[in-house]
Every structure is written in structure tokens, then in C-alpha cells.
Amino acid sequence: MPHPPDEFLVRRQKLTERLATHKADALLISAAPNVRYLSGFTGDNAILLALPGKTILFTDPRYSIQAAQQVSCRVKICRGQLVDAVAAAAAKLGAVRIGYEPARITCAAFNALQARLPTKASLKPLAAAVEELRMIKSPAELALIRRSVDLNSRAFALAVSRVRPGITERDLAAEIEYRMRRLGAEKPSFETIVAAGRRSALPHAQPTAARLLPGQLVVVDMGSFVDGYASDMTRMLFLGTPGARVRSVYAAVLEAQLAAIDSVRAGVAASRVDAAARLHRQPLGYLRHQRGVIALPHRCVQIDQLHQRKARKLFNPKFKVIKSKAQFLALHKLDNLSAQQINRRNQHGIGS
Q1: Claim to verify: residue 147 and residue 106 sit in the same structural domain
Q2: Which domain holds residue 152?
Q3: Long-range contacts of 9-16, Cβ-Cβ distance < 8 Å, separation of 24 or more
């Protein structure tokens, strides 16, 4: 579901309506995600100048055709520095108090802009002016987020079907990103994380040439970017049959996450959600996350060693079967998960 044609106009109107509250005549938007949010422009060199009733996109000649196709507001193609044209336009339009994004502009750009503005004009920091609008998603945005999440899940399933002992972390990361793009993603949301064995304990490990071996845990952290909206998913693979220790940790982490999800309500502080997870992680004692949020529950995957045989069904009720041409994977339904836990997980779409 793409954005309705007038959604960008509505966003710009909402933004400029707030300028009076901030005692500003105009706002400069230089952060690429915010420029895209307000205009639909996806180029990497642009500044928006937003005033009540008028918005101008400034970019360079490389994007003249692209801007004409993507943007509904006025476009100014600049052959020199963008800040020169922005300063001239602000002065011509009579903007005296000009807001800017203090966390999104470099010192060099700020100084250049300030030097080019008329003496009577001043720059006013307006922190998170666009981000506050972005906090509340429209139906079109929610649909794009769902698309991104669904695409991410499908890419993971396709990539995992090719996992076997002996491939490298980089092999799996490349396979994941290849599947994302084949399914329609613009790019990964971030650099895909694949880490096996002891390296799976690193929260932000980079894939290496290390090979995946039987009996290892393998963490996968991945996300896809779809029409400007990102997904983020973490899964844990196990090569072989997971033992009691792995199953116990899985169950404990799953319970912690489900407890956190159950505590989510409109108006509830994030610290309350975090506390709900922490109360259920006590049996583990060692699971931590940099931002205080318990790690996502990961699916444990048994990868059968008979990769060259024709895939066939398993009738063991503990396993959910995936068939492929050259191998089969069995997703392990952990013995110590109750039916209630499994149902709650499925309701939330977790580790299905």
C-alpha cells in the first residue's frame, strides 16, 4: 500500500501549523529520513525549506528527474552549494526566525548557512519537530510496516532453508540480504548480523568467515527496508538437536518477552514494559541487553544431517516440518513450552 498522493502535503501542513507555537517563520529539514517523510524524495542530497503555505525542496542536478517524479512541492535545482540557495530563498520569502534540526546538521553546514543569512535573520534550534509527527503512524504507514515485517519473515524462512553445517557467517548474511531484495526490499534496515558459537553472545557482531558447525547456536539479527519503513527481527538457530540447557533458556526468554508484550498498553511507560520482562528473567540471571530490554525469543532449528537425501516428512509431533529439494529442516517445539505459551506466541506472531 503506497502513500496516498496527498499524504505528504498533509504532513507538511501539520508541520508548518506548529511553527507559530515555536515562534519560527520557517523550518529547515536536512535529515534524509525527515526529508523523505515530508516530500517522498529518496535522494541523498537535499534540504527542505518549509513555511506556512509553501515548501521548497533543494537538491542538485543529479536528481532533477527523480525529484520531479517523486515530489509534489516546488523543487529548486542548485548547481552550487545547497545552503546558498536555501539562504537566498529564506531571505526572499521574508523568513526571519528560521528553525533547524540541531541533532541533524553538521557544524560546517550550520556555520555556512549562518554566514549567508541576512543580518536580521536568526537560526533557532527546533529539536524533534518532525520526529514528533512521525511518532503517530497513518494507516498507509502501518500497512508499509506490516509489509516490511512480512517480507523480513519470508526472507528469513527462505534463507534458513539453505543453512547447513560448513557455510560461513558471511554466506548466511549474504543469502538473507539476497532474499530480501528478491522479495522487494530496497535494502537491509542495517548490516545483517550472523554470529555462531561464542560469537553469538555479541549483541552487534559482524559476520565473519567462521564456519557454522553442528552443536552451535547461531544468532541472526536482520531487517528489511520497504518504501522507507524498516523491520527488525532477531532469531536464534541451533545446528543439531538442542539440549535441555538450550531449551530451558529459550523457554525462560520467551516467557520474559511474552510478559513484556502483555504489559504493553497505551500510556504505559517503557520502563514498566522493561520491568515486566526483568521479573521473568530471574531464573536466567545472566541475560542482559545494552538497553535493558530482554533479548527476543529465538526459534531453535534442528538441521538434519541428511542434506543430500530427498526431503521427507517427519511424523514426530514435537517437530514442525519444512520441505525443500535437497534438505529438510525441523522447527523444534520445545518440550517445556505449555500449550498456553505456544498459543500466546502464535497470537503475537512470534517465532512461528
Answers
A1: no
A2: 142-347
A3: 9/72, 9/73, 11/37, 11/38, 11/133, 12/38, 12/39, 12/50, 12/55, 12/73, 14/133, 15/50, 15/129, 15/130, 15/133, 16/50, 16/51, 16/52, 16/53, 16/55
Same domain, 303 and 208: yes
Q: 44, exposed or middle or buried, with CB in 10 Å at 0-12, 13-18, 19+?
A: exposed
Domain stops at, among 92, 110, 134 = 134
H helices of the chain, in order, are 7-17, 32-39, 64-70, 82-92, 107-116, 129-134, 139-160, 169-183, 244-262, 270-279, 339-347
Specify the pLDDT at position 344: 54
What's the pLDDT score for residue 247?
Answer: 87
What pLDDT, on the 0 to 100 scale, is given for residue 158? 96
Who's near 294: CB < 8 A, 6+ residues apart?
Answer: 253, 256, 257, 260, 277, 278, 280, 281, 287
Q: 97-100 and 122-125: which strand pairing?
A: parallel
What does residue 112 show for φ and ψ, rounded to 5 degrees?
-65, -40
DSSP-derived 3-state class of residue 47: strand
CA distances from 1 to 32, 66, 167 (A): 22, 21, 37
Q: What is the mean pLDDT of each run of 10 residues along the chain (352 residues)?
A: 76 95 96 96 97 97 97 96 95 95 92 92 95 94 95 96 93 97 97 95 94 94 95 91 87 87 92 87 50 34 32 27 27 38 49 37
C-alpha distances in angstroms, 77 versus 26, 81, 93, 127, 296?
Answer: 20, 10, 18, 27, 46
- As given in the structure block, the three cell numbers for residue 139 are 494507516
Of 99, 134, 169, which marks where a domain is finished?
Answer: 134
* Under 8 Å between Cβ of 205 and 199: yes
